[in-house]
Model the fold of this input.
Amino acid sequence: MANDWQKKIDEAIDAAKKSEVAVVVVGIEEGESLDRAYLGLPGHQEEMINQVAATGKPVVVVLIGGSAITMSKWINNVPSILDAWYPGEEGGNAVANVLFGDYNPAGRLPITFPVFEGQLPLVYNHKPTGRTDDYINLNGQPLFPFGFGLSYSAFEYSNLRFDKKQFGKTDSAKVYCTIKNTSNRDGEEVVQLYIRDLLSSLAQPIKQLKGFQRISLKAGESKEVAFSITPELLKMLNANMQWVVESGEFRIMIGASSKDIRLRDVVSVIE
Done:
């Protein structure tokens, strides 16, 4: 019956009360001609999350879908969320391995998740606006930014250095940093390189992802990571629709997401 949703939720609540942990699997409907005006979970899935969470049992929400989901009505009631996207035939095993701690995840979001639909379009690599990003009745920050992702490990970034901080338009430089696994769990970190052209002939994004490395570190282990800053990473389309590297200063940023920049400094490109 279409109107028996509360009965089904009551059954889920009863099951949760008899369990040590509740895993609530929810998702969205997507496809051709199935664009969504609202990005919340459809149907009564949000009620189910909140009512299961009200039992007091630890709750893991597993999201199935290929795009952003708003969570303001329930996110503060649950301790953990796993975005499984469309995991395929082995998805059950993969999700179970993560939930039981047999696999330490290191996925990163390739899109931005907004708090509310009114923030859209919301992208990390927008051009400077010359004004605040906030609204009169809402913070302008995303729910989860581009590049965001957690694991069972924690990592420390340090020792930013360059082989040279001034170089010509056709030259390259290298930037180095040290990543340390500060947890007691072996894990992987996705180290992300962002660059901003500080003064250009045409407006450029406030930051752009220009490289990333996924590295594996044992508990307590440190590793030096290097990125090459090449003309390819610094070029832009000028007013004549030509790819050029302009002289000036570029901010080099390394971090764990587009909003979690851990290290930054400026290099100069000279004529």
User: Anything to note?
Assistant: The longest helix spans residues 5-17.
